[in-house]
Automatic annotation (TrEMBL):
<keyword id="KW-0732">Signal</keyword>
<comment type="similarity">
    <text>Belongs to the bacterial solute-binding protein SsuA/TauA family.</text>
</comment>
<dbReference type="InterPro" id="IPR010067">
    <property type="entry name" value="ABC_SsuA_sub-bd"/>
</dbReference>
<protein>
    <submittedName>
        <fullName>Gll3107 protein</fullName>
    </submittedName>
</protein>
<dbReference type="InterPro" id="IPR015168">
    <property type="entry name" value="SsuA/THI5"/>
</dbReference>
<feature type="domain" description="Solute-binding protein family 3/N-terminal">
    <location>
        <begin position="22"/>
        <end position="230"/>
    </location>
</feature>
<feature type="signal peptide">
    <location>
        <begin position="1"/>
        <end position="20"/>
    </location>
</feature>
<dbReference type="GO" id="GO:0016020">
    <property type="term" value="C:membrane"/>
</dbReference>
<keyword id="KW-0813">Transport</keyword>
<dbReference type="GO" id="GO:0009970">
    <property type="term" value="P:cellular response to sulfate starvation"/>
</dbReference>
<dbReference type="Pfam" id="PF09084">
    <property type="entry name" value="NMT1"/>
</dbReference>
<dbReference type="InterPro" id="IPR001638">
    <property type="entry name" value="Solute-binding_3/MltF_N"/>
</dbReference>
<dbReference type="GO" id="GO:0042597">
    <property type="term" value="C:periplasmic space"/>
</dbReference>
<dbReference type="GO" id="GO:0042626">
    <property type="term" value="F:ATPase-coupled transmembrane transporter activity"/>
</dbReference>
Length: 321
């Protein structure tokens, strides 16, 4: 009888088997995801009764590949980097909005390059098919250019920043904290950034669909931990900054410089992002259609997925007061 009751509770997501493995969450270098390190360091997952293994990736694209391959239960990634694999058949669910990029994704170029139109014929690098490749293409499109008008080099983000600093590229698409490396020689400048494209780059906790179906109770606790972590950071700013800067490999002062370029989202803002479609730039249903169209048009995706099925808002709604 007890087994039948437990099975029923598990089916409803109200109980978790004692033998369940920790949920593996991938994350990489981005200011909007470093708060997860605070959650891990201060035991906030365990405080909420959920076992989590945070898995660090030096290369952002590797974390996306690991999620799609089933080596992770969840990953921290952008909306456009979720739509692209979904277009290829991956079954994924966005359950949380960590932030919107508001300047920390940057196209950095040599100082003599005065405008986007001046990029024609220049050597530019970015991580193929990911967030700053997308940003680069958005900027080019704005001025009537395409990737065919530049010499594009696909290169991992950290390596891209180093290549630009070494003078091997005319420009590069990178995100914080790699922006610091790219600008370290004083020979570069920011030509444009995600600040010019509000809502275009949003960052999320994304899970494999099968995990969402199998372990909803744990996922709700993880989502709650995100908001508990933001509260902890607000109450303990100096300690939290030390933890996040260490994970980022930067000084606290450098880390503070990223604040204005990343708009961290609280519960109320999450509810807005998951709301029925409006033309608000942070609305995910609206923005996802724009991204899907762009990815197909630019050749980054072969087919346009049904983006409506990507969003699972029940976990943030469950936390609404």
């Amino acid at each position: 009888m007890r087994r039948i009751v437990v099975a029923a509770l598990l089916w409803m997501g109200l109980a978790t088997p004692a033998f369940a493995a920790p949920l593996k969450i991938g994350y990489s270098a981005w200011p909007g995801w470093f708060p997860w390190k605070v959650a891990e360091a201060k035991g906030l997952f365990k405080k909420n009764g959920v076992e989590v293994q945070m898995v660090w990736f030096e290369g952002y694209a590797d974390s996306i590949t690991a999620l799609v391959a089933g080596k992770l239960d969840a990953n921290c990634q952008t909306l456009n980097d979720t739509i692209a694999p979904a277009a290829a058949g991956a079954k994924l669910k966005v359950v949380l909005t960590n932030d919107n990029s508001a300047g920390n994704d940057q196209i950095i170029v040599k100082k003599e390059i005065a405008s986007i139109k001046d990029l024609k014929g220049k050597k530019l690098g970015a991580e193929l098919g990911t967030v700053d490749h997308y940003l680069l293409l958005l900027g080019l499109q704005k001025e009537g250019l395409t990737q065919k008008d530049i010499q594009f080099t696909p290169i991992e983000t950290g390596a891209a920043a180093a290549a630009f600093a070494a003078g091997r590229l005319d420009g590069v698409g990178v995100f914080a904290p790699f922006t610091t490396k790219a600008l370290s020689t004083g020979k570069g400048k920011v030509l444009f950034s995600s600040k010019e494209f509000p809502g275009a780059i949003s960052d999320h906790l994304v899970l494999r669909e099968e995990v969402v179906k199998a372990r909803p109770g744990e996922i709700e606790k993880i989502v709650k931990t995100w908001f508990d972590t933001l509260d902890y950071i607000k109450k303990n700013p100096e300690e939290s900054l030390q933890i996040m800067a260490k994970q980022a490999g930067t000084s606290v002062a450098e880390y503070k410089s990223y604040d204005s370029g990343t708009r961290i989202f609280n519960l109320e803002q999450n509810l807005v992002t998951f709301a029925p479609e409006t033309k608000d730039p942070i609305n995910l249903r609206y923005q996802s259609k724009i991204i899907a169209d762009f990815l197909v048009k630019s050749g980054l995706a072969k087919t346009k997925p049904d983006t409506a099925v990507l969003f699972e808002d029940k976990f943030v709604r469950a936390l609404k007061p």
